[in-house]
C-alpha cells in the first residue's frame, strides 16, 4: 500500500507492507507512471523512524453528500436524484494521528466515516466505464462536520471547511474490489457506523463520471463517497477511527482550539 511520509524534513512516498511494519522507499512521482516510472529503491525504513502524512496532497477534496439511503433517512432529507457535491478546501487535510481541532465557532461537531477515492491522472469528462483507469486507489477519510453551522448556513462551506476537517489515511490501497467493502467507524472503541459500500446510491465509477463532468480532477485529488448512517457527536478528548476492509484503520483524536 502507498503511504506518504516525512523523514529528515523531506516528504516522500513509500510502499508499506503491513506484516513487516517496514516502509520501502519510492523515488520519483507516483502519479507519472506512464512517463517516468517511480522506482522502488529497495531501501527499507522502520515505521518508527518516519512520520506518516496524509497519503496524498490534493488540490481539492470533492465530497458527495447523502450517498447512503440510511444516512439520508436519519438526516430526514430526500434522496438526491444526482450526486450532491460540495468541496472541502485542501487545508482541511491532515494525516493519521494529526488531531481534529474542535473550532470555537461550533457547538455540535460530527464525524462521518467515508471511503475516499484518490485520483491517479488528470480526469476531465471521464465516462463511468473508463473511471478505473483514473483511480490510483482508495483510502479512509473522516468528513468532519460542524452540524449546527451546516443547518444554519444553508450551504456547507463553513460547516465542512475548517482546518483539520479531513483526516485521510493511513495508506492508499491501489487495487480494491470496491463494490462491497465493510466500513466501520468507532468512537472511543465503540462501533458507531458499520456498513458496506454495497449500499452506495451512486457507485464509484458513477461518481468519477459525475464529478469530472463538472471540474477537472488532478493527480492526488480526492473524492469522498459519502457516509452511512450512525453519524454523531465528537467531544474534545475523543478518539475516532475508521476501518475499511482492504485498506486499514485511520485513527485520530479531537483537541480543543488554542
Ligand atoms: Mg460526508
From TrEMBL:
Q: Which UniProt keywords apply?
A: Hydrolase, Metal-binding
GO BP: carboxylic acid metabolic process
> Which parts of the sequence belong to the Rv2993c-like N-terminal domain?
2-55
One GO MF term attached to the UniProt entry:
metal ion binding
Query: Which stretches make up the Fumarylacetoacetase-like C-terminal domain?
Result: 60-255
Q: Which domain of life is it from?
A: Bacteria
Say if the entry is tagged with keyword Hydrolase: yes
Q: What Pfam family is a match, any one?
A: FAA_hydrolase
Q: Which family does it belong to?
A: Belongs to the FAH family.
Tell me which PANTHER family the record gives. ACYLPYRUVASE, ACYLPYRUVASE FAHD1, MITOCHONDRIAL
Name recorded for this polypeptide? FAA hydrolase family protein
Amino acid at each position: 500500500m502507498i503511504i506518504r511520509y516525512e523523514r529528515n524534513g523531506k516528504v516522500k512516498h513509500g510502499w508499506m507492507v503491513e506484516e513487516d511494519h517496514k516502509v520501502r522507499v519510492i523515488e520519483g512521482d507516483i502519479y507519472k507512471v506512464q512517463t517516468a516510472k517511480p522506482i522502488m529503491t529497495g531501501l527499507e525504513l522502520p515505521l518508527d523512524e518516519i512520520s506518516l502524512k496524509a497519503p496524498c496532497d490534493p488540490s481539492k477534496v470533492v465530497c458527495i453528500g447523502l450517498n447512503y439511503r440510511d444516512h439520508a433517512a436519519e438526516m430526514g432529507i430526500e434522496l438526491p436524484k444526482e450526486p450532491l457535491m460540495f468541496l472541502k478546501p485542501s487545508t482541511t487535510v491532515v494525516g493519521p494521528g494529526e488531531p481534529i481541532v474542535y473550532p470555537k465557532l461550533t457547538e455540535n461537531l460530527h464525524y462521518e466515516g467515508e471511503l475516499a477515492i484518490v485520483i491517479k491522472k488528470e480526469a476531465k469528462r471521464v465516462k463511468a466505464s473508463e473511471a478505473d483507469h483514473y483511480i490510483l486507489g482508495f483510502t479512509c477519510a473522516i468528513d468532519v462536520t460542524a452540524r449546527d453551522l451546516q443547518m444554519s448556513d444553508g450551504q456547507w462551506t463553513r460547516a465542512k471547511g475548517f482546518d483539520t476537517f479531513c483526516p485521510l489515511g493511513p495508506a492508499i490501497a491501489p487495487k480494491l474490489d470496491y463494490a462491497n467493502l465493510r466500513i466501520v467507524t468507532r468512537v472511543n472503541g465503540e462501533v458507531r457506523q458499520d456498513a458496506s459500500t454495497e449500499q452506495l446510491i451512486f457507485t464509484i465509477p458513477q461518481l468519477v463520471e459525475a464529478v469530472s463532468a463538472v471540474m477537472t480532477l488532478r493527480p492526488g485529488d480526492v473524492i469522498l463517497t459519502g457516509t452511512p448512517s450512525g453519524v454523531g457527536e465528537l467531544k474534545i478528548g475523543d478518539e475516532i477511527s475508521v476501518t475499511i476492509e482492504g485498506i486499514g484503520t485511520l485513527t485520530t483524536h479531537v483537541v480543543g482550539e488554542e
